[in-house]
Amino acid sequence: MTGSGSADGPAVPGPRGRRPATGGRPRVVYGITVPQSAATLLRGQLGWFRTQGWDVHLVTSPGGPLDAVVDRERVTVHRLPMARETRPLADLVALVRWVVLLRRLRPDVLNVGTPKAGLLGTLAGWLARVPVRVYVMRGLRLQGARSRGQRAVLWAAERLSVGLATDVVCVSHSLREEATALRLFGRRDRPVVLAAGSSNGVDPGRWDPGFSAADRDAVRAGWGAAPGDLVVGFVGRVAFDKGVQDLLAAFGPLTDLPVRLLLLGPVEDEELRGAITALGERVTRIEDWTFDLDHVYVGIDVLCLPTRREGFPNVVLEAALAEVPSITTTATGARDSVVPGVTGWLVETGDVDGLATAIRACVADREGVRVAGRAARARALSDFRPTTIWSGLEQLYRSGSPTPPGSRSASRNG
């Protein structure tokens, strides 16, 4: 079940003043449901903790880009199958495996996120008596529930994950606010947001070389964009909860404008294919998902994320590094990702006319788009450095009170 890739590091004090349960270096176990999420949401974080003297382990499902994660982060990986959807028997088997693994590893800290790994990991961590159990709340699936029964089940799972954790990290301030309003926190819970938020920050060292190497004109020509076109890009799952139906509806009437739509990502809701086809040659589709998006961000003028729910959208930060501003919504998490009128534009969630108006404004004011793009990059560089998130987590692991610049903590009243 295991594959190694860890390296020795200097001995460091144990979490929260404790002697490390494993002796020598303190041990942290990360849990995330699928390798694709580990490759993006934890990129660089695992390796950084290793260099800080931690014995780092990752628990995730097998397959995907897992070998690349091991090579890049040089940590120990434990392949533990977890289904993203509810499967009672498979979930029970996964829980037993989690408990057995944690009792063998005896970690000082457990960090889990994404719904299934969050639930199974916090429950197993509680059963195995892991002293520090951190639940990273990266979004609220219950906001996308399609029935009252499903919403109730998702609420209960989220509440249980929070209740079994010793610490909760929310990836945005609005996410913490929404979770508080939904009564997901108890009287003793003190959920924190690290700095300005996000799962992992954004690293210019990863993106800038690719941006510099990309040929913008060639990329746009490959999409069929004319030199004067404003290219509006969407990056992510082509799904209802990402609001793609709203973007397609807003884009449809804009036939009088020199504007082109790029949709990059797998189609999850097949009902959307008809609306995409109806736009004809004004839309470019790229369904093959890729982690190398440098050329995509270089080629577009504006990112549009009309999402219905988020934790904190990483694509907005990635685009910002390429000096691309974003149009997004007032949905949970999304509204934290731009400064309205400065680094991008906000419209009400589900407001098709508002999206169309924002796109028209961008077509009319190309210099304003460029100015917003430069401001977006400046904000990404100043407020979303990965090391700010990582050092805040390490402080949480050790003391329970992270205080990097801009960090705030809160408890639910009543």
Automatic annotation (TrEMBL):
Record bears the keyword Glycosyltransferase: yes
Top-rank lineage group of the source organism: Bacteria
InterPro entries: Glyco_trans_4-like_N
Glycosyltransferase subfamily 4-like N-terminal domain boundaries: 43-196
Record flagged with keyword Transferase: yes
GO molecular function, one term: glycosyltransferase activity
Record's keyword terms, sorted: Glycosyltransferase, Transferase
Compositionally biased residues, Low complexity: 9-27
Disordered as annotated region, ranges: 1-27
UniProt xrefs under PANTHER family: GLYCOSYLTRANSFERASE
Identification of the protein by name: Capsular polysaccharide biosynthesis glycosyl transferase
Protein's organism: Modestobacter italicus (strain DSM 44449 / CECT 9708 / BC 501)
UniProt lineage: Bacteria, Bacillati, Actinomycetota, Actinomycetes, Geodermatophilales
